[in-house]
Specification:
The structure is a homodimer of 340-residue chains.
Chain A lengths: L5 E6 L8 H9 L4 E6 L14 H6 L4 E4 L10 H13 L2 E4 L9 H10 L3 E3 L18 E7 L6 H14 L4 E4 L3 H7 L13 H8 L8 E4 L11 H11 L3 E6 L17 H15 L4 E7 L6 H15 L3 E2 L1 H4 L2 H9 L8
Parallel strand pairs in A: 1-2, 1-3, 3-4, 4-5, 6-8, 6-9, 7-8, 9-10, 10-11
Chain lengths: 340, 340
């Protein structure tokens, strides 16, 4: 687990988009985003006060989070100077960069000398078990998508926020690097060794209170041939009680696979539910989350209404219209019946 | 790739069963099994002549294959002496043991000094790509099972043998450590990192002659919650043209999962075919391979006949009755229709 709160390191981010990770922390765990550290040439601004390293430590920061994608795949000398100083001053460092902190000899040496931790969230830090399939207490909800990158993380995070606002017992469970950096914990599932994938999700979502919901971040898609095995492990390791179907209706083809068309939401519903029932016969689909960013508002509302009629399930875009409908469906445990 | 032929190292194997890997080489690649090396206390005998290290090298052996499961998870000092000598004399070493050759400092040092290779087949030696899903030339057949360990490797190897006997163009593609040691090449799929699973199978089964069949070794089961993600990656990375359904009808529950019943062959047929069609819409199920070892012969024949009536597919136990029926179905490309 990464110690919180954070100092968000924006480096020399050329624009706001390059600081996607920092933006995620600011949006979803604002209480972790105590300060930001910006270097010369930085054009991003996440909002929290600019702080020097000592100032951040005085404010209670425990970890410097690299909140920006670097250019060219190397940690620049300019960054390096700040990172070494941060370790010396008393901060751990967490990063989701492709090039690992642990491969930088100077960072490793300083971290060891100063007793600090380097967190490379792309790489598992736990020896996960092989899944045993035993039914766990508490409840679990998993977002599954017709494709990759259709809003599964956003859906789960927005449901968690809505549930907390209602005083409900729920935890977002991160399965990718951005989610791990946002929340300080999780499983980097795409980097887990094949035999331990489902076991890592069992580990991530252990026995819990009877009224507790794990909101598990989805990955990949059952219909995406590059990553479908990862999705399968989430379904069987997560043994969800509830599925949320996620979709982006304007895609011409599967992400990164020009030869592959998207499946229908009906196909996703049927396949995901059949597979989920292997691990949990009581599983049901509770709602549909649509990323409508490429649709006009009236077009989006019309489309969502048509899905609700077709599937007899609540359908919304949680970014545009809130996650309330999805949470209603989850907590009411309504037994929607799928229309033929 | 592991250099062949082999000297089969049986060590101090207490019985024939402990030398399963050596038995596999002897059964399926007898031309690789030039000699065996037995130590004091060895109660296994694979049949090829006993040879010393120099004798084996003179006979053309290139690699000493550890053909026995060791006790207690460590390479014993008695073994170590032989292994070091083998490297010095001129043999590579290949092993599927849990404890890795590469973690034995003395073996690593001698191998480097002598220019020999250490093959730990449990660990990938290749940086596999992410799957791109592009259709490849040549044809592929994949064995899928209702459960783990129902005879998928045996089915594929026996089909390869039958196809070679008929002069057909076919290659068994190993996806597990035993298969890799038997054939000298393959992908240790259970040890591949999640994101690269499907890509590793694309790598294993590249473009080939139009009349060539890859016979891909199956792993796990879509219905086995511990390993289903691995099976999924095989189906989507392998983009099979043909599926063989594998089953062991006397199992009380899924292997290692007391709470999980086996699915029906019909359920396997429908699910595997639906998933395979995502990557290859032309895929069809060509036959059923049943492990009937716990049934009397007449009982087995009656059961197989009932499956043939139910599924309108050839059904056999390749160990007991040969793989001829499965190969007939594969090469005739018969379009069997599944009875409702």
């Amino acid at each position: 687990m990464i110690k919180t709160p954070y100092l968000l390191f924006l480096g020399d981010a050329p624009d706001q988009l390059a600081a996607k990770v920092a933006q995620g922390v600011k949006d979803w765990r604002p209480e972790f985003a105590i300060g930001q550290f910006r270097m010369e040439g930085c054009n991003a601004d996440m909002g929290p006060p600019d702080m020097g390293l000592q100032e951040a430590i005085a404010a209670g920061c425990k970890t410097l989070v690299i909140g920006v994608a670097n250019r060219g795949g190397v940690i620049s000398p300019a960054w390096k100077k700040v990172l070494v100083q941060a370790l010396e001053e008393g901060l751990d460092i967490a990063s989701g960069l492709h090039n690992l902190l642990r491969d930088e000899a100077d960072l490793v040496a300083v971290a060891e000398a100063c007793g600090r931790e380097l967190h490379d969230v792309r790489i598992p830090s736990v020896k996960y078990p092989i899944a045993n399939g035993v039914k766990r207490t508490g409840k679990r909800c998993l977002a599954v998508g017709t494709d990759c990158s259709v809003g599964k993380m956003y859906t789960a995070l927005s449901m968690e926020r809505e549930m907390h606002a209602r005083g409900l017992n729920a935890t977002f469970r991160a399965t990718g690097q951005t989610g791990i950096l946002i929340t300080g914990d999780g499983v980097p599932l795409d980097a887990v060794i094949a035999d331990f994938m489902a076991g890592s999700i069992e580990y991530l979502t252990p026995d819990n209170d009877a009224d507790h919901w794990d909101l598990i971040e989805g990955q990949g898609s059952l219909f995406h041939v590059s990553y479908s095995g990862v999705t399968m492990a989430l379904i069987h390791g997560g043994q969800p009680d509830a599925l949320i179907l996620c979709h982006e209706p304007t895609r011409a083809h599967m992400r990164g696979l020009p030869g592959y068309k998207l499946p229908s939401l009906k196909a996703l519903n049927d396949l995901a539910l059949e597979l989920a029932k292997v691990a949990n016969p009581a599983c049901h689909v509770v709602g549909i989350s649509v990323n409508t960013q490429h649709m006009a508002e009236d077009e989006a509302r019309t489309y969502l209404a048509s899905l609700e009629r077709e599937f007899r399930l609540p359908a919304t875009d949680p970014f545009r219209f809130g996650a309330g409908k999805l949470v209603d469906a989850l907590v009411q445990g309504d037994q929607y019946a799928l229309a033929g």
